Amino acid sequence: MPLDDIRKVKLDKLKKLREVGIEPYPAVSERTTSVADALADFDNLVLSKKSLTLAGRIMARRGHGGLVFFDINDSRGKIQCVAKEDILGAEVFKFFNDLIDIGDIIEVSGILFTTGKLEKSIQAQSIRLLTKALLPLPEKWHGLQDVEERYRKRYLDLLMDDNVKAKFVKRAQIIQAMRDYLLKQEFLEVTTPTLQPLYGGASARPFKTHLNALDTDVFLRIAPELYLKRLLVGGFEKVFEFTTNFRNEGIDREHNPEFSAVEFYAAYKDYNWAMDLVEDMLVTVAPDRFKKPFRRVKFAELMRPHDSLEDAVFKEKVRPTLIEPTFVTDYPKDMLPLTKLKPGMADTVEAFQFYVGGLELVKAFTELNDPIDQRERFAAQENLRAKGDEEAQRMDEDFIEALEYGMPPAAGVGIGIDRLVTFLTDSHSLREIILFPMMRPK
Fold first, then answer.
1. 167 and 127: one domain?
2. Does 89 reside within a domain?
3. What is the pLDDT of residue 139?
4. How far apart are the C-alpha atoms of 84 and 119, rounded to whole Å?
5. DSSP 19
6. Are both 305 and 427 inside the same structural domain?
7. Is 439 within the bounds of a domain?
8. How confident is the model at residue 391 (pLDDT cuts 50, 70, 90)?
9. Do both 190 and 103 map to the same domain?
10. DSSP labels, 272-341
11. Do 17 and 65 have their domain in common?
C-alpha cells in the first residue's frame, strides 16, 4: 500500500479514537517501571503477583481470535505482552485490535508470567494508548536499507537496529569515562566561547556569522585552545573542555564540519608527560582495545624513506601504515605554529600525534609561551594567508597580550572524540557515530 494511503488509514483511526473520547496523545504516562528493571527482577515479581505498568512502542504483533501477542520496546529492553479478550473485555480488546497498530506507543498494566514456550511476558489487564503513530515503521528486513536515508532519519535507524543504538550508548560511555579520568587527575572542567571575534587554535577555514546585538561579525569556534591557554595565564593549572568545533571544510569518512573534541591543558608539564597521560587514559577508557606500551617514533624517521618532510606526503604515504597504536613525535616547526621548539633545535617542535588504524586521534604539544616567538609565528601565518592559504592562522593580538603577562610552561592535548568512537566501535565512517551528520541537501 502506498505511504499516503497508509497515512490516511491511520488518520482515520485517529479520528475514530477522538470520536469515542480517547485522547491519542495524553500528557502523562503512569509507567511504574522500565522493561529492563521488570526483567531483572522477573522471578520475584512473578511470585509476588504484583501488578506493573510498562510503556513502550509496539514493534511486533501476532495472533488471532481472542488472543494477541505483541512486543513492546522501551529504551532499555523488550518484552512480550499477551492480550486476551476474556481478560480485557470485548470492548477494550476490539479497540486494541481495530485502532492500535505496530509503531504506536502504549501503556500496559498487568502481571508478569512465563508462557508455555518459556517466554517472559506480561499479561495485559489494561491497555492505554500514549501516542498514535501516523506513519508506518520500516519493515524490519527490507526497510531503511539506503545508507543516506539512515543518516537523514536517524530516529528510524535507532528504532529499527539495536546495534546502531548500542554504538551511541557506547559513545556516551566513552565520553563519560574520559571526563571521569580527567576529573580524577584533578583537571577542572570549563566552558569557553563558541562564538569568537577571532578564530584560532587550529589551521582551518571558519564559519562566519553576524552578531546583530553588537553589529559585528563573529566566527564559530574552530578550536578552544587559545581561550584555554588564557586560563593558564589566569592561574588555573589544569583545565579541560568538551567542545563542539566547526570547520568549513570537506565531508568524508574522517571529517564532518561540526565535530566533537576534548582539549586539556596542564601547567608545569611537557609533551612527554602528556604522552604518558594520553596512553594511560586510553588504556583506562578502553582496556579491551589498548595495551601499554604504545609505539613511539619520530616524524623525521618515518619520513626518511620518502625524502620529504611535507605533511601531504605523510598523510598519503605514512599515515595509512600506522595501524598499531603509535605516537609520532617531534614535528617540523612550520606545521605547528603554537608549539614550543625542542631545545637546541631551530626547526623541530615538541609535539606528538597519536595514530591507530590509520586514523589521527590525538594532537598534543609542549605549548609555546614566548610571546615574541608567538608573534613571529603568527606573522608567518599571516604571510601564508596573504599568498592564498585560507587555513592559515590569524594574528591574535589579545592572545599575545595575555602571553605577555606570563603563561607557565604547559602541555596541551586535543582528542577527536568522533574518530576515537569510530575506532572503538569498529565503524567505517564518522557518520556512523554522529547522531545527525551533515548531509547534502536533497
1. no
2. yes
3. 79
4. 16
5. H
6. yes
7. no
8. confident
9. no
10. HHHHHHHHHHHHHH-TTT--SPPEEEEHHHHHGGGT---HHHIIIIIGGG--S-EEEEEEEGGG-TTBPB
11. yes
**What's the domain range around 35?**
3-137
DSSP track, 133-198: -SSPPPPTTTSS--HHHHHHTHHHHHHH-HHHHHHHHHHHHHHHHHHHHHHHTT-EE----SEESS
The answer to the question of whether 360 is labelled as a binding residue is: yes
C-alpha cell at 296: 613511539
Q: Which single residue is written with the C-alpha cell 566547526?
A: 246
pLDDT category at 348 given cuts 50, 70, 90 is very high
Do residues 352 and 329 touch, judged by C-beta distance below 8 A? yes
Counted domains in the chain: 2
- Count of CB atoms within 10 A of residue 306's CB? 13
| Residue in 119, 110, 46, 123 with CA at minimum distance from that of residue 83 | 123
Which three cell numbers, joined as nine digits, stand for 436? 545527525
Q: Yes or no: say if 319 and 358 are a contact pair by the CB < 8 Å rule.
A: yes
Residues 286 and 322 in one domain: yes
**249: which DSSP letter?**
-
For the stretch 292-313, pLDDT in tens is: 999 999 999 999 999 988 889 9
Same domain, 170 and 212: yes
In a domain? residue 297: yes
Q: Which residue has the cell 576529573?
A: 183
Q: How far apart are CA 354 and CA 278, in angstroms?
A: 9
Pairing of strands 120-131, 105-114: antiparallel
- Closest by Cα among 333, 408, 426 to 369: 408
Peptide bond between residue 293 and the one before it cis (omega within 30 degrees of 0): yes
CATH number, domain with residue 18? 2.40.50.140
Instruction: Name the pTM for this structure.
Output: 0.93
Q: 199 and 117 share a domain?
A: no
Q: How many CA atoms lie within 13 A of 266 on its CB side?
A: 20
Contacts of 395 (CB under 8 A, 6+ apart): 375, 378, 379, 381, 382
| Residue 207 belongs to a domain | yes
- Output the CA–CA distances (angstroms, integers) from residue 395 to 109, 172, 378, 391, 400, in the order listed: 65, 37, 5, 13, 9
Query: What torsion do the CA atoms of 293, 299, 304, 308 make, to the nearest 10 degrees?
Result: 160
Closest by Cα among 351, 364, 355 to 322: 355
Helix (H) or strand (E) holding 371: helix 371-386
